[in-house]
Amino acid sequence: MANFSANYGNKITKMRFYSPYERWLTRRALLQALALLGVSTALPLGLGACSPARQLSRAREPEGLRSLLNTRQYFGVAVDARHLADTPYAAAIAKHANILVPENDLKWRVIQPQAGAFNFSAYQKLAAFAQENNQSMRGHTLVWHTGLPKWAEKILLHGGKAEVRSMLHAHLQETLQQTATLVHDWDVVNEAVSPHSRRKDFLRANSPWFKALGPDYITEAFSAVHSLNPTLTLTYNDYSMEYADAAGIRRRSGVLQLLQRLKQQGVPIHQLGLQSHLQCHRPLAGKAFTDFLRTVQQLGIKIIVTELDLNLAKLSGTDSERLNLGAHYAATYLKMIAEVQLLDTIICWGLSTPYSFMTKKDRSTLHPLPLDNNLAPLPLWHAVRSTFIESV
Ligand code: G3I
To answer: How far is residue 101's CA from residue 285's CA, in Å, rounded to a whole number?
Structure first.
């Protein structure tokens, strides 16, 4: 413990705190939290070295996260069907997750690469795996400003509203029909808000959907999905609403204005997806974030975590110090959500390091996900485990 505070604690005192939640991130609290997470605090010895207790627990294969969950809790991962060829990885997904989300296999460019030529083969592989392993699925994503095939972009930019609406309806009809058996919750619209927007409502005006149909494209999308299948749970999904900085303030304002407008219009919207790609160097918004979540909850909208991972790139310290700081940051973040509502759904954007979109971009990325390259639990795995255990 002495080593820890001498070599590490000082870094904590340098972190800026913005609210009682950040002050919770004090040296003592961090040590206590790391101990609670079952993580060795002999950090300077590096990730491989552990306290005797940890070595013992390392020797025992950790239980699958899903075995800890009750029937109303979901821990999941984003998966690309091609990843299932990695047998140990597929086994880890089956062991830990009770819900899957296709990372890319339900995006326009994959399922309708050419107009009218649908291809759900990758999704069907994922669906078969999910059924074999008694896992649920959620859909990602029906309307997004990127990930579009060229033919669709062309219609959005040059076709009239009638042609765009016809294209959207055809895509929704086929996609919802093909996935109806397993997918009962969809990210209907993804990332429609931008802190860089010049609009007072911070809507992403450079979205091809916005340019084609105007700001009510979001209303149209949710209403069309609901009319095609009124039994679906409809989610609005976005990121970076958790930070104290100016961008976080603008993003929370934009998302809240959007949700309030949809509710005023009587649009069926049931969930807000917090993507939660946590940039662990950015101070969390604390009360401003929990107030935001409470306002969302008062609209009758449930909050779920849809794409959790950690960006530790701008944290200083040894690898194990950064991993532990990141896990505590995530635990603090998840605790804030759980203070407002029962947090019953946490989905990570992948399960182990090699399959993170961040690692694919930069192989030097430090472990953004719950399992390392050898499928061994990292501090984030313990933080997620503790969140579920504490929120029953
Ligand atoms: O599958 C093709 C492959 O055949 C081709 O050779 C290769 C090179 O062009 O591209 C491959 O497709 C790539 C795909 O990932 C699968 O690896 C696309 O180019 C690439 O753009 C795509 O990136 C995905 C990105 O969304 C854009 O769709 C990432 O994997 C995915 O993790 C990321 O996920 C997003 C969420 O959907 C929304 N929230 C943010 C999150 C992270 O950016």
So the answer is: 28
